[in-house]
Amino acid sequence: MRHKILGKIGNTEAIIPAEGESQLLWKQAGQLTFRDSAALALPHTPRILPWYVRMLGDREKGVAAGWRRDDIAVAGITIDRDTAAIELAAATSERLAATALWQASTTAEDDIARGLLESATAVYALERILCRGTWFAANGRMPPRVAQRVRRDLHHHREHLGAHLSELVAGFDIDLDVFDAPMAAPDYLRWWQEWARWSSTPAATGIALVSDQAKP
């Protein structure tokens, strides 16, 4: 037991400097973004972007503007200029990631691929907006009408991606046969049953328990 505890302590001590280095990189990136935000634009960025991608860009611009006038409160729950720079770097990375997805959708020749990329863009951007909801609300960018649209569109695009999971996996052209994992098995419940040495699948066990409880 002592060896296990020592191992966990060692892992924790290793994580602490690694996390510190990550924050240092975020801070440096944020300061560079503040100095030349115009340079951080993807080549051939479409002139017209979806409203949710523009919202991520608005957050980036708002945080950068606050940083310039030394108003770090605009970045959110920050304690100094360094943490505000980290927020700016995060905002920039989110805007770039969403823009890259949308750009890929505009160049896709296959209709199904285009639709999936559009939904992937929406899901990523809307989830980031949902995560940053307090910032958008505090800065007047999230009235009830917009909040409802975020929730509605996110639900729609998640459903679309969920209905095409096989196409998404096939798009990466990964040979799943080499993996011994539930996602690579024709029947993932059967995989779990054999791996855990269950006499029946978890779903069948659960159904049996529920049916037994329902008996008078």
TrEMBL record:
Highest taxon, organism lineage: Bacteria
GO MF entries: oxidoreductase activity, acting on the CH-CH group of donors
Matching InterPro entries: AcylCo_DH-like_C
Protein name listed in UniProt: Uncharacterized protein
Organism, as annotated: Nocardia mangyaensis
